[in-house]
């Protein structure tokens, strides 16, 4: 039987065959591991035959073919490795040695499995397969080790790319931090946006490739910080440039830069598997994991009475009960939960005393009665710990549910926006105190949820959420203070909105996290909920890519509509409505927003197509106003739009049975929506140009986009959520910067 090809510390070996690999080669990514699987399978086939000395000619020839196939595959593999070595001089020597070893080992295996080289009596129909058993094992071990080394070295190149990308981002951030003019800021931020796109792609691929789920969760948390901070950096920097003498604006901007640097550093720690100053990573220590380990030790007494000491067991329980003090000392834990936790803690100590007493007796005299008493003591101890786990879970999740429900209307954030615009410093101070109280509640909620999260990735997600509330709260306060000091500043108002959206987004994420934690507790493995109910994971990756493209297009459409002076223009209103609906479809690809099922998506696609048809009618009406030489182009574009909308409408209405067909339909709907949005990006500037041309200088371009308190949302029978910045390093950031007029009045 073939063993698993890889383990966390390297490539595992088969004890029956003696096959092994260099223990110093740690495989951290799935791509390297999966590349080795077929090679290990073929090598294991060869190795296993050494223990069966008699085989027919037919089997012998099959073994020869496998040996030759291994050699040919290794030859092709080494050719690629050598090409990589030539392109990366710092790895050339190591890579070349590994390639030579791999080629030599492959050739040795081919020789040892060559029928012509085997010495056997012609009169015997059953012949010996290998004349040199140890030679094959040695060659196989060398081959596996050298191939693994080539793969691990190649993986270093990916790590180097990420580090190089990070360094470029950091260098540009330093320039952004020092700029003193809007023009210079726009130019550098455009470069920064492109660099963040590159970094997003590289780190996203790396995150998906990581084997370690804990590292994957940490990477996701760091990338989420960068995602949200990208737009924060834009608005905070603009505010600071507009109000250079404002201390709260400077504090706000400095906070964003600091947080981004920390996130960038954590990404590098993860990909290089290193910690600053050689520190060891501290594993999260939760009640859930403590109880799990404690129960395993207790149940292990059934098999071995001597594998641990009573002092070790007592210490483990003490640590667990110390952690329960996070609940009993919390001002947000209900009286009922506090009393139950204290009672169960007391009971746990008593049960352990009884267990230890019976356990010590059983060590001295292993009678049937004592072993039965020990079994009862084990069961009672484990039952008590299960009840304690259930109680702290109930305390944490009920608190979280109540807090999330209470804060769902975002009353404090709305008040800060209103009082900031009014320039009411006293009222802003009052509401910042309330926000600080809310922050403390949410931070405490995250700390308690971490204890009951059930898996290390979810623990890390709780820690990330706690950090987000800790940091974002003060940033909202500094942004609100800036607005109160400069109530007529549009950029200060926009900046506060961005930070408030980040807070609202984190609250929304907490609802999903709470459901995942409950899934773990209820035995559903805590797998992330997927709205699509579609095949995974490759197909969903395709959907996600389409969704991202759709989001970029909505940003471009928004930029175009903001250029229009007449926001009541029918073309603008249809364009804004279509952009909002496309954004809802993008959120669906992320498992977020109001569209929860595929049917919701298909219905939204139908409404989107209808809105597009209405826009085409508006284009026909516009064609009557423009000059004759411009009319054909406009009518041609309108017909294209009608055709695309009809295709989308037909796709959305088509029936689909089964997961595969449903996926195909979702894919087609989003693809066709993307096509419509692409055309819309071309139509809006064309229409604006024609109107400007026909209005003799009255112009349809605004000098500066106004602050829109309530965006126009049309074409849907449900309230579409406020636009949130969902991607980081998006390609259209340059357009966002270019299209914003900074020289507003203070």
Descriptive notes:
The chain has 746 residues and is an all-alpha fold. It folds into four domains: 30-48 and 57-115 and 130-156, Alpha-catenin/vinculin-like (Four Helix Bundle (Hemerythrin (Met), subunit A)); 179-274 and 409-526, Alpha-catenin/vinculin-like (Four Helix Bundle (Hemerythrin (Met), subunit A), Up-down Bundle); 287-400, Up-down Bundle (Four Helix Bundle (Hemerythrin (Met), subunit A)), CATH 1.20.120; 538-696, Alpha-catenin/vinculin-like (Four Helix Bundle (Hemerythrin (Met), subunit A), Up-down Bundle). Helices cover 73% and strands 1% of the residues. Strands 1-2 form a two-stranded antiparallel ribbon. The model is unreliable at 1-24, 121-129, 526-538 and 697-746 (pLDDT under 50). It comes from Taeniopygia guttata.
Q: What order do the strands of the largest sheet run in, or round the barrel if closed?
A: 1-2
Counted beta strands: 2
Strand content: under 5%
Just give the CATH class of the largest domain: Mainly Alpha
User: What low-confidence regions span 5 or more consecutive residues with pLDDT below 50?
Assistant: 1-24, 121-129, 526-538, 697-746
Instruction: Spell out the helices and strands N to C.
Output: HEHHEHHHHHHHHHHHHHHHHHH
Based on the model shown, name its key terms.
single chain, 746 residues, mainly alpha, Four Helix Bundle (Hemerythrin (Met), subunit A), 4 domains, two-stranded antiparallel ribbon, 21 helices, disordered N terminus, Vinculin/catenin, Alpha-catenin/vinculin-like_sf, cadherin binding, actin filament binding, Alpha-catulin
């Amino acid at each position: 039987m073939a063993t698993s090809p890889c383990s966390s510390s390297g490539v595992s070996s088969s004890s029956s065959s003696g096959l092994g690999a260099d223990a110093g080669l740690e495989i951290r990514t799935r791509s390297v591991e999966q590349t080795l699987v077929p090679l290990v399978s073929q090598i294991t086939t060869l190795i296993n035959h050494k223990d069966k000395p008699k085989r027919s000619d037919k089997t012998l020839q099959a073994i020869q073919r496998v040996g030759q196939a291994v050699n040919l595959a290794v030859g092709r593999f080494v050719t690629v490795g050598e090409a990589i070595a030539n392109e990366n001089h710092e790895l050339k020597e190591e890579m070349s040695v590994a390639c030579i070893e791999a080629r030599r080992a492959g050739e040795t295996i081919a020789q040892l499995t060559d029928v012509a080289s085997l010495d056997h009596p012609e009169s015997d129909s059953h012949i010996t397969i290998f004349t040199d058993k140890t030679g094959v094992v040695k060659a196989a071990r060398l081959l596996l080790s050298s191939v693994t080394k080539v793969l691990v070295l190649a993986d270093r190149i990916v790590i180097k790319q990420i580090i190089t990308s990070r360094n470029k981002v950091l260098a540009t951030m330093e320039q952004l931090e020092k700029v003193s003019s809007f023009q210079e800021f726009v130019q550098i931020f455009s470069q920064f946006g492109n660099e963040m796109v590159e970094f997003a792609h590289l780190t996203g691929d790396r995150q998906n490739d990581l084997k370690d789920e804990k590292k994957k969760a940490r990477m996701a948390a760091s990338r989420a910080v960068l995602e949200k901070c990208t737009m924060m950096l834009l608005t905070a920097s603009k505010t600071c440039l507009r109000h250079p003498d404002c201390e709260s604006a400077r504090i706000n901007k400095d906070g964003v830069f600091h947080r981004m640097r920390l996130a960038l550093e954590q990404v590098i720690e993860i990909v290089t598997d290193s910690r600053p100053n050689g520190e060891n990573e501290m594993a999260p220590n939760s009640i859930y994991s403590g109880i799990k380990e404690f129960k395993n030790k207790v149940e292990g007494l059934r098999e071995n009475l001597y594998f641990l000491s009573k002092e070790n067991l007592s210490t483990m329980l003490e640590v667990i009960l110390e952690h329960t003090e996070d609940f009993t000392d919390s001002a947000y834990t209900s009286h009922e939960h506090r009393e139950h936790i204290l009672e169960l803690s007391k009971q746990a100590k008593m049960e352990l005393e009884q267990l230890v007493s019976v356990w010590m007796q059983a060590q001295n005299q292993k009678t049937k009665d004592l072993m039965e008493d020990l079994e009862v003591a084990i069961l009672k101890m484990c039952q008590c710990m299960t009840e304690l786990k259930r109680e702290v879970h109930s305390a944490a999740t009920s608190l979280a549910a109540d807090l999330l429900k209470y804060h769902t209307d975002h009353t404090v954030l709305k008040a800060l926006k209103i009082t900031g615009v009014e320039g009411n410093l006293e009222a802003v101070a009052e509401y910042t105190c309330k926000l600080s109280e809310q922050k403390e509640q949410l931070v405490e909620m995250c700390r308690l949820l971490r204890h009951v999260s059930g898996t290390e990735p979810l623990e890390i997600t709780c820690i990330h959420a706690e950090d987000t509330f800790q940091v974002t709260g003060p940033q909202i306060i500094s942004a609100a203070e800036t607005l109160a000091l400069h109530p007529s500043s549009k950029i200060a108002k926009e900046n506060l909105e961005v930070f408030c959206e980040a807070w609202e987004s984190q609250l929304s994420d907490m609802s999903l996290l709470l459901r995942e934690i409950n899934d773990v507790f209820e035995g559903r493995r805590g797998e992330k909920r997927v709205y699509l109910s579609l095949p995974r994971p490759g197909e969903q990756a395709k959907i996600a890519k389409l969704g991202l493209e759709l989001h970029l297009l909505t940003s471009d459409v928004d930029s175009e509509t903001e250029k229009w002076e007449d926001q009541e223009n029918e073309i603008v209103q249809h364009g804004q409505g279509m952009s909002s609906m496309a954004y809802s479809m993008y959120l669906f690809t992320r498992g977020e927003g109001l569209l929860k099922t595929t049917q919701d998506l298909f219905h939204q696609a139908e409404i989107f197509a209808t809105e597009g048809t209405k826009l085409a009618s508006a284009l026909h009406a516009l064609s009557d106003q423009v000059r004759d030489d411009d009319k054909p182009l406009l009518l041609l574009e309108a017909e294209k739009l009608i055709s695309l909308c009809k295709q989308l409408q037909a796709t959305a209405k088509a029936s689909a049975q089964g997961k595969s067909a449903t996926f195909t339909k979702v894919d087609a709907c989003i693809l066709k929506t993307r096509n419509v949005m692409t055309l819309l990006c071309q139509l809006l500037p064309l229409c604006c140009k024609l109107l400007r041309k026909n209005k003799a200088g009255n112009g349809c371009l605004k000098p500066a986009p106004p602050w829109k308190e309530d965006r126009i949302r049309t074409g849907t029978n449900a309230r579409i959520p406020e636009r949130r910045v969902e991607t980081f390093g998006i390609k259209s950031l340059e357009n966002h910067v270019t299209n914003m007029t900074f020289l507003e009045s203070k």
